[in-house]
Each structure stands twice: as C-alpha cells, then as structure tokens.
Amino acid sequence: MKKTKKIVALILAALLIVGVGIFANGVVGNPVSKCLATNTAKSRLAEVYADKDYEIERVTFSFKDGGYHAFIKSPSSPDSEFSMSLTMGGKLRWDSYEDRVLSGENTAARINKEYRAATEAIFTSPAFPYYSHIEFGDIEFNSREWDVTEDTPAYALFTEDLVLDQVYDIRELGKTAGHLVLYIYDEDVSVEKAAEILLEVKHLMDAGGVSFHVIDLVLEYPKPIDDSPRKEGRVETMEFLYDDIYEEGLVERVAAANEAAIAHHAKRDAEKEKEISGVVK
To answer: DSSP 3-state assignment of 272?
Structure first.
C-alpha cells in the first residue's frame, strides 16, 4: 500500500512538473528556443544586411503569438530600427525592415517625437494660462499606399518623401502639417472665450518657436468635485487653420467652426446608429 502511494505521488509530482514547464514555456519561453531564435536573427543579419552595422538589441518572448521577437538597431543610424518575428523552433516569420525603415515610418516617428516634445514644453509651462486635460501636437503623416478617407488630412506629409536620418526643421514642417489638440476646462464656455484661447495659444506657440497648421480646440465646463451633474455646454473647433486665427471676425469664424463640429458629430452618431440597427436586424 505504501509503495503504491509513493508511485502515485511520484506520478502526480511528475505531471505537476510537466504542467508547470508547459505553462512556463508558453509564458516566458525557454533557453533552447531563445537560442535558436537568436541564431536565426544573427544569420539573417549576416546574410541580408551584411553591409549594415545592425546589432541585436534584445530577444524577447511574446506569449501573445507564442514566439520570439528580435529587436534590431543601428548605432550609426537613429532611424534604422526594426524587429524580426521568429517561431519557438527558430524559424523566421517576418521582419519589419521594409515597413519601418524603408517606408519612412521610423523617420516620421522621430520627427513627430521632436514636435510633441516642443508642443508639450509650451502646454506644460507655468506660463500657459489654461487648465487643460488633453494637450499635444502631431506632425500629420500619410502614405501613398494607404487608403484615403475623410479622416485623412489633406495637408499630411508623405512618409515616402522622408530621407533616412535627415535632420528636419520641425518649425517648417509644423507650418505645413502641424496639428494641435487641446481640451480645456473653464467656467466660461462661449465662442468668445474659445476665440480668446485660440489667440493666446497662437501667441504662445509663436513666442516659443513652434509652428502649427491647424488646431482642434474643445472648451468644456470643469468636472464637479462632488457627484453633482456637470454643466452642459461645449465649444469645439476642428482643424481650425492657423491662418484664420486673427482678431477681426474671429468670434464669427469660431461660431461657424463650432456649428460644423456639431454637424460632424451628429452625422457620425447617425451613421453609428444605422450601423448598429443593421446589425441588430
């Protein structure tokens, strides 16, 4: 009887160990498969990118796709970063060199990071006089290969036109494709207040040496501290042109932009309702 119990205990322990091993393998991988993936990544760099100074930054396991990802960087080229996806057995699934490096996506991301930092410095400055809860700036990019929709900015720059590692003047790019997004809480929610904010933002950006092409401004009442209902009211401008921000007639232009934003959201809501009703039927 004791011998039988020992055998059963050993079998259960072995099954537990196997189960834990299988679970761990599916969550963090294992040293053998990581070595295979790393060797494949090294071989591909040597065979396909021998003329580059690419280095493997790290190889990590992804439990989402059950494989490894090798992250590649160049010490001499800030825009030359991509990754390789590899199976547990070390077989290459794909690499993102064309999608990230050749397409201009990395260069666009670097430019946009610089522009965001420049706009953030102004929005978070003690000199910025408004209480904002969303504030950022983007350089809008598009690709000639992407489908054009109504949400695609006509002023966006093409990633294919970017030059790898080239230093760009973000002030000049901002004039053409800079897009600010600003959500402000204030007790005065009116087109007059929105016009005042636009003028001040333009002044601060000009003084800070940051250009922009359009701005999305949303002016709302602050959220109450307690559970009392929030005041209703909102003024919004969507892609309001920098060139249209000047005092004469500005209140009227903001009022027209707000009406256009209301119509835009109403149209979107109607389309969603139609889509939902179609699914329900």
So the answer is: helix
**Inter-axis angle of helices 105-123 and 170-177, nearest 10:** 90
Domain end, chosen from 70, 87, 102, is at: 102
pTM more than 0.90: no
Q: What is the mean pLDDT of the chain?
A: 88
Rg (CA), the chain: 27
SS3 135: strand
Question: Within this chain, do residues 131 and 265 fall inside the same structural domain, yes or no?
Answer: yes
Q: What is the pLDDT of residues 59-109, one digit of tens each?
A: 999 878 889 999 999 999 999 999 999 999 999 999 999 999 999 999 999
H-helix or E-strand spanning residue 206: helix 191-207
CATH number assigned to the domain comprising residue 55: 3.10.450
Residue 44: give the domain boundaries.
2-102
| Count of structural domains, the chain | 2
> What average pLDDT does this structure show over 152-168?
94
Structure tokens at 271: 């389309």
